């Protein structure tokens, strides 16, 4: 099954292109209100692999959007959700209990709703309520369906003029990404070697890359079956930096990677240059990963691709079945049995 995951990672550019078409097709049937509606905020409900797209959009929105974008990863929704909110329910399976709960609350608050899913209960609910429904292909591991889950958020944000990335720019970014596959693979293979039998510590080189660093951490957890940690500069320099090197057994087991943002404040770049000297002897390796691309969207997509490939190559080194997430599935099954009364604690 590892080969399937590898191909899905490489298919990211094609997923983006297909998702653009799916989103545009869904919007054609929703003129009128959807065209006129200008939200005061965007609330994006999603869990796990279905939730990372909202975090990526938030990072971009913090830099560009005139209205706030608020990811929500819970059974409840932010209190500010209301009639002027655009609520996006994102669940690959369509059966995520937290997202279903959030959807129902958004309905009660009379928010304008879009559902992004491959089926399940959310699909049925969206069809019954005549919500904007963007149906994406089923049968994929949610964490490897990023192109289908993120792109609709980008397209809808573009339509509402919340981001400077038009449909054409998104499409061109996917084309460029396809041309970078070989280069991204080489970078990822090198990173996997430095992460092997070490603890990856991913630092976002600015708040724009916080979700990228989090995605790297999650993919390393799920695909490589290894512990990994992340933080964001400059915030990391005000707390976590003091913990590096302790407990003592962790010394020389920390592999630090900075996701370098060429547009970051000069003071952040200076902090990055100072870190190797300041932390000398406390880590196994320290390296920077420079993204590819000419704009923020291209650079973020390149980092996402590099991170996914790194998790694949490291998982292979550990000889793991990259697609399986046994503990997560076991927990879901146990929760289901406890809820149905078939099992007691």
Automatic annotation (TrEMBL):
<feature type="domain" description="SIS">
    <location>
        <begin position="23"/>
        <end position="173"/>
    </location>
</feature>
<protein>
    <submittedName>
        <fullName>Bifunctional phosphoglucose/phosphomannose isomerase</fullName>
    </submittedName>
</protein>
<dbReference type="Pfam" id="PF10432">
    <property type="entry name" value="bact-PGI_C"/>
</dbReference>
<comment type="similarity">
    <text>Belongs to the PGI/PMI family.</text>
</comment>
<keyword id="KW-0413">Isomerase</keyword>
<dbReference type="InterPro" id="IPR001347">
    <property type="entry name" value="SIS_dom"/>
</dbReference>
<dbReference type="GO" id="GO:0004476">
    <property type="term" value="F:mannose-6-phosphate isomerase activity"/>
</dbReference>
<dbReference type="GO" id="GO:0004347">
    <property type="term" value="F:glucose-6-phosphate isomerase activity"/>
</dbReference>
<dbReference type="GO" id="GO:0097367">
    <property type="term" value="F:carbohydrate derivative binding"/>
</dbReference>
<dbReference type="InterPro" id="IPR046348">
    <property type="entry name" value="SIS_dom_sf"/>
</dbReference>
<dbReference type="GO" id="GO:1901135">
    <property type="term" value="P:carbohydrate derivative metabolic process"/>
</dbReference>
<dbReference type="Pfam" id="PF01380">
    <property type="entry name" value="SIS"/>
</dbReference>
<dbReference type="InterPro" id="IPR019490">
    <property type="entry name" value="Glu6P/Mann6P_isomerase_C"/>
</dbReference>
<dbReference type="GO" id="GO:0005975">
    <property type="term" value="P:carbohydrate metabolic process"/>
</dbReference>
């Amino acid at each position: 099954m590892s080969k399937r995951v590898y191909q899905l990672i490489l298919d990211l550019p094609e997923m983006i292109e297909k998702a653009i078409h799916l989103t545009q097709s869904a919007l054609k049937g929703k003129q009128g209100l959807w065209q006129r509606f200008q939200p005061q905020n965007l609330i994006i409900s999603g869990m796990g692999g279905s939730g990372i797209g909202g975090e990526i959009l938030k990072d971009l929105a913090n830099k560009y959007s005139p209205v706030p974008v608020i990811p929500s990863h819970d059974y409840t929704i932010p209190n500010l959700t209301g009639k002027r909110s655009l609520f996006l329910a994102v669940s690959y399976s369509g059966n995520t209990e937290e997202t279903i709960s959030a959807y129902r609350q958004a309905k009660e608050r009379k928010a304008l709703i879009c559902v992004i899913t491959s089926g399940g209960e959310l699909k049925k609910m969206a069809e019954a309520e005549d919500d904007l429904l963007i149906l994406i292909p089923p049968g994929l591991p949610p964490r490897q369906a990023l192109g289908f889950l993120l792109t609709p958020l980008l397209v809808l944000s573009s339509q509402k003029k919340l981001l400077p990335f038009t449909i054409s720019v998104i499409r061109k970014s996917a084309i460029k990404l396809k041309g970078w596959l070989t280069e991204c693979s080489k970078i990822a293979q090198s990173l996997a070697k430095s992460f092997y039998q070490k603890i990856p510590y991913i630092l976002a080189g600015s708040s724009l890359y916080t979700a990228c660093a989090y995605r790297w951490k999650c993919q390393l957890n799920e695909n490589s079956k290894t512990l990994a940690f992340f933080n964001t500069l400059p915030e990391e320099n005000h707390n976590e930096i003091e913990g590096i090197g302790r407990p003592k057994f962790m010394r020389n087991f920390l592999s630090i990677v900075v996701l370098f943002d060429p547009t970051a404040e000069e003071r952040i770049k200076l902090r990055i240059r100072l870190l190797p000297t300041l932390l000398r002897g406390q880590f196994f390796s320290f390296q920077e990963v420079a993204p590819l691309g000419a704009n923020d969207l291209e650079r973020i997509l390149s980092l996402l691709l590099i991170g996914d490939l790194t998790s694949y190559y490291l998982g292979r080194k550990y000889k793991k079945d990259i697609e399986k997430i046994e503990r997560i599935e076991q927990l879901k099954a146990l929760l289901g049995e406890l809820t149905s009364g078939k099992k007691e604690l």
